[in-house]
Amino acid sequence: MERADRGSWAPTTGAAPPGAVLLVIDSLDGGGAERYVVDLAIALRGRGWPVEVACSTGGVRAGALTDAGIPVSVLLGGLVKRRVSGGYGRALRRLVRDRRPAVVHAHLYASAAAAVVATRGLSVPVVLTEHTEAPWRDRAARAISRRVYQRVDHVVAVSSAIRDTLVGTYGVPSGRVDLLLPATAAPAAAPRRATGGTAATVGVVGRLVPEKGVDVFLRAVALVSAAVPAARFVVVGDGPLRAALEDRAVSLGLTGVVTFTGFRPDAPQLIAGLDVLVVPSRSDGSPLVVCEAMAAGIPVVASRVGGLPDLVAHGDSGLLVRPEDPADLARSLVRLLRDPAAAQALGRRGRQLAEARSHARLVDRMTEVYAAVARSAVPALA
Question: 161, 307 in Cβ contact below 8 A?
């Protein structure tokens, strides 16, 4: 396989592009990993890197790529998620043969497996970003992941917990793993004076799936609302649990107290209008919503799971609580609602940390990884 032409692209910053980069993800739906891929693709394009995105099915984020002039290849008629699909792997292999990228960068389980199939024997290096510790994997899925990790050229972990799992559980050599915390590409919101106090708005932003713990948030809201009746709460996002969660809010007496907005493409702007962001996850990687809140100076209350302690320093840039403990979450929220000065201090510190973890730095490191794996790849036969 011949390499893409290298002479016509000149990035404004970072490593020189080794050729085209093909980003592969299960879908372009409304999740954090999907947002990560879209932001990365747009940033690469802005630096003059030839980039394309492939997925098993499209989604609400595809329009942002189209608007940026980034080609999107939808390879199948339906979503492939948390499973291995021969059809997905074959379709991706045809695309790789046609596009001849210098690097394939895969995201999520199904797309990582497809990328390994698609590049076998073609000397196209594969970079994998691991967004989760994937507690859902059974024995068979763990065995497949182990083979995938053995075959990819480099793995990027978005949290220290994921990095430790890769090295300790799956035996990935530490030299092939980068710890690279996520960062938001959204424009930083101007510093503002939050509503604060008992009239504050507290929100959750994310997919409405079991691991995000929105049911825990609702139980906490019932406790907080009894102590701070003027506070209001919002759930931004969509997913398979939405109807059940709306019913749960009604059963908890939260009608008029909690608003469900569904998916919102302007979620970063909505986050900037909150007084506190809550991340009540049962398991999580390093969710971008935390980065967006911190960039806007909004204090974060998050579960002490996964990559959240990497992003939120307890008592400094936010508060960490026990997962699946609505009482602990409620206590932290009441504390901040009754002490807006303390909440705003946490927000200011979070904003400082977000400025240090810029998206530009993330892209700098990613382009260095691309250039390194492309240099080390063995040229393939045409």
Answer: yes
